[in-house]
Every structure is written in structure tokens, then in C-alpha cells.
Amino acid sequence: MQPALLDFPPLRWLGALFIAAGLFVLLESFARFALEGRGTPAPVLPTSRLVVHGFYRYVRNPMYAAVVSVILGQALLLGNVWLLGYAALVWTAFHLFVLLYEEPKLRRSYGGEYEAYCARVRRWWPGGRSR
């Protein structure tokens, strides 16, 4: 393990917290896809219902945010600055995927229901309206 980032050991504890929170959000959100949406996050077996409860009440993409949280947590825990860059790269890839593929597909699949959801819930950061 490398020295703590910024030579500040408490960042390791923050990293562990990011990992634990990210894993919890990821598992709960995945289960919600199966139980509420009656499908999976995989495009080959999509949900038959729009998932809007659980962490989806707060952000439209909690699974992607959770994965980035786990990577950021690893960077802090391990003191690895390269993982910070990797987290930024992963978030950028997720953002482009959401904008270019996922949101247009959800608009086609769920129409007005998805539009109303987008008006209530922000894409990446909880709180307030999305527009």
C-alpha cells in the first residue's frame, strides 16, 4: 500500500466508507431492478417496468454512481492517485453511455412516464429538480 493521499491517513477511512456505501447502493439498486422492474440492468434483459423507488428516488443512475464511489474509495484507501484518474474516465464513459444510449432508449420505452421521472429526479446528484 502506498502512503495516504495528501499524506493524510484519515482519507483511508473515507475511502473505506465510499467503498461500503457504494457496494450497498449497488446491491440494493440491482435487487430493485429484479424485484420492482422485473428485469436486469443488462440491455439484453431489460426491465418491464420503470424503476423509480429506492435510490432511484434520489438520482436516476445510482448504480453508475455507486461504481464510481467504489473506485474513488479504492483510490483513497490504497493511496493511489492513478485510480482517481480511472474513476474520472469511468464516470465520463458512464455519462456518455447514459446520454447517447440509455436515456434515448428509456424515452422510447417509457415515454411520458420517463419524462415525468426526469423532471423530478436529477441524473447524477440528489436534490432539487433536474431541470
Give the SSE map:
Layout (H helix, E strand, L loop, with lengths): L9 H26 L26 H17 L2 H40 L11
Structure description:
This protein is mainly α and 131 residues long. Helix content is 63%, strand content 0%. The chain has 3 helices and no strands. The termini are far apart.
Features:
131 residues; mainly alpha; 63% helix; elongated
Characterize the largest beta sheet: strand count, sense, and whether it forms a barrel: none
Q: What's the rounded overall pLDDT mean?
A: 93
Query: What is the SS-derived class?
Result: mainly alpha
Distance between the termini: 43 Å
Coarse shape: elongated
- Total helical elements: 3
SS elements, strand count: 0
Question: Beta-sheet strand percentage?
Answer: under 5%
Helix and strand element order = HHH
| Share in helix | 55-70%
* Domain tally: 1
Regions with little confidence, pLDDT below 50 for 5+ residues: none
